[in-house]
Amino acid sequence: MKLIVTGSLGNIGKPLTEILVAQGHNVTVVSSDRSKKAAIEALGASAAIGSIADVDFLTAVFREADAVYAMIPLSFTEPDLGDYLRRMARNYVQALKAAKTKRVVVMSGWVADLVKAENVESEFEGLETSITIMRPGSFYTNFYQSIDLIKGKGLMGKLLTLRYSGFWALLTGKTGLLMGNYGGDDRIIFVSPQDIADAVAEELVLMPGQKTIRYVGSEELTCNEAARIIGTAINKPWLKWVLLTDKAMLQGLRMAKVPQKLAETLVEMQAAMHSGKPLENFHRNQPKMGKVKLSEFAKEFAQVYQQK
Question: A Pfam family for this UniProt protein (predicted)?
């Protein structure tokens, strides 16, 4: 099959490309970074260099493809996150229609239907094509972004961002605390990008007759359990995840000079996580959990942590 992977060689894009190439598919990887061309080709895929903001570019890439994996990278330079996400979603829809693509797998998030700004799934509803919406939990790999803060190099000045999960936190490395307006004993679905890649690879070769939604997770843990697993791997077993009020979280984001509208959206995302509704929706759909446990990822995290 001729398959298109957007998102360059990111946490999902790279393992997904490796899986699809190993299965014998003709894979094209879309990247806005020309320097990634050689790495893409080294995996046995073709590179399409351009921006998802360019509908003509997307249309040309999608033409004659059997299926497309569509994801929208978060932008923290956009003051209105929701407007940006919807614009990019509409670009995808326009290109998919023009290219007459028969199958698309869209990356979303497990709180996307609960947070107005992040809910771009409805933008794809007008497509006369087979579509599956992927709703993964909180990515393991986003803990990497907390390394400098855990080492005490920053206080309240940097955001730990977890893609498409609604998970945002402030972390104070000096006291060994993770902070957010959800945390503590809140139960969260965490997920390995490898497990997401496996799920997307399965979906790309299917052709359901109606829109489907697939939740993806690897392990269910409380925030403090996750913090303890990561902390233990780096000899900081006391690492805790402190629950802030919505007001305190908003004040922290303002201190970090996050634009007001974006800050309000981030607080709304975390509040949805704290409500427990995403977890209820996850269990209601009874998804099969992935194979990679957080303790396995924590070993990789520790190696990277020690090298910093």
Answer: NAD_binding_10
Whether residues 30 and 90 fall in one domain: yes
Angle at Cα 117 formed by Cα 273 and Cα 245, nearest 5°? 40
0.85 exceeded by pTM: yes
Q: How confident is the model at residue 79 (pLDDT cuts 50, 70, 90)?
A: confident
- What tokens appear for 28 in the block? 């094209």
Between residues 50 and 75, the one the model is more confident about: 50
Instruction: Note whether 266 and 168 are within 8 A (CB).
Output: yes
Whether 13 and 127 map to the same domain: the answer is yes
CATH code of 292's domain: 3.90.25.10
pLDDT tens for 12-23 read 999 999 999 999
Q: 93 is in which domain, residue-wise? A: 2-136+192-216
| Residues 31-55 pLDDT 10s | 999 999 999 999 999 999 999 999 9
121 and 57 part of one domain: yes
Say what angle helices 260-275 and 81-99 make with each other, to 10 degrees. 80
- Both 147 and 252 in a single domain? yes
Lowest mean pLDDT, pick from 17-26, 124-133, 176-185, 297-306: 176-185
Q: Does residue 65 sit in the same domain as residue 38?
A: yes
120: which 2 tokens? 């771009």
Write down the residue that tokens 């599956």 correspond to.
132
Whether 161 and 299 map to the same domain: the answer is yes
CA 251/CA 226 separation, integer angstroms: 25
Task: Give the pLDDT confidence of 157-177 residue by residue, as tens digits.
Answer: 234 333 333 333 333 333 455
Residues 184 and 121 both lie in one domain: no
DSSP per position, 16-46: HHHHHHHTT-EEEEEES-GGGHHHHHHTT-E
Chain centre to alpha carbon of residue 232 = 25
Residue 186: helix, strand or coil by DSSP?
A: coil
Note whether 115 and 177 are same-domain residues. Answer: no
